[in-house]
Amino acid sequence: MSRIAVFGAGSWGTAFSIVLADAGNDVTIWGRREEVCAAITERHENTDYLPDIKLPDAVTATHDPAAAVDGADAIIFAVPSQSFRENLVDWAPVLPEVPLVSLMKGVELGSLKRMSEVIAEVTGAGEERIAVISGPNLSREIANREPAASVVACIDEDVAKRLQDVCHSTAFRPYTSVDVLGCELGGAYKNVVALAVGMAVGLGFGDNTTASVITRGLAETARLAMRLGANPLTLMGLAGLGDLVATCSSPLSRNRTFGEKIGQGMTTEEIYASTRQVAEGAKSCASLLALAQQTGVDAPLAEHVASVVAGRSTAIDMMQAFIDRDTKAETD
Prior knowledge:
This protein is α/β, with parallel strands linked by helices. It has 16 helices and eight strands. It folds into two domains: about 5-180, NAD(P)-binding Rossmann-like Domain (Rossmann fold, 3-Layer(aba) Sandwich), CATH 3.40.50.720; about 180-325, N-(1-d-carboxylethyl)-l-norvaline Dehydrogenase, domain 2 (Orthogonal Bundle).
């Protein structure tokens, strides 16, 4: 049995805590709101994010970062990517020298750093102590213990294997990888593709359109990831294609739902005001576009999604722009 700290009491942090508890670990969640922490510890529920889900007795919560990491064998981060650095600066002084694991799927605005890079920069931890977990893992289905698989990536394969054992439960099958970069970019970019798919659905388009957007989105993701040094097989695996399919296809996906609402005519500000849940793609589309431009990679999907999210164009403008682009060979 291990003791695991999870920073983030939202839907994904709470759902992954269920995985960890089912795998035989004691789990302490750090939560921003004390009333949520009390509900998790005293009533074994988090009704704000996962209503009707009973949490295991092995899951407790606290608002005190030092208490959350006391005796921890590994620390999991599951907070919105754009506020992660600010939070991590506060937490860093109490973090022990144990593996630090990101569940987050975004690229930081401004610095254009992946979440593993933010962890390294703020904490000073070496690459061998930093891991990511990414795959087709919709929070609600994970919390319902529906069978799922994911990827644990760390440059140190032994660390990845230890973390694999920590989260291998009766319903959750983790694989290992050393391609941290590929897993992170696959996880971040699929949110942008899901926004575009959601916009197409919101406009009333069908399966041909959505399949085309998904496929070209995967090509765009692979262009950027491979230019930066990722293994192309990662983009064909759970952290690439698997996550992309789940996020683009499911009505449970925050990013697809966000895109649908835009396609139906809502503004970004109206959508933000209507939900507590964070659609990472809406925040990260601009940073991923900037990363692609910095790297010299053509990224039309990220470009148009960022324009729509910022209110500079509409969803129908985006769809028409895809059709109007100069024709070329598919593999170019």
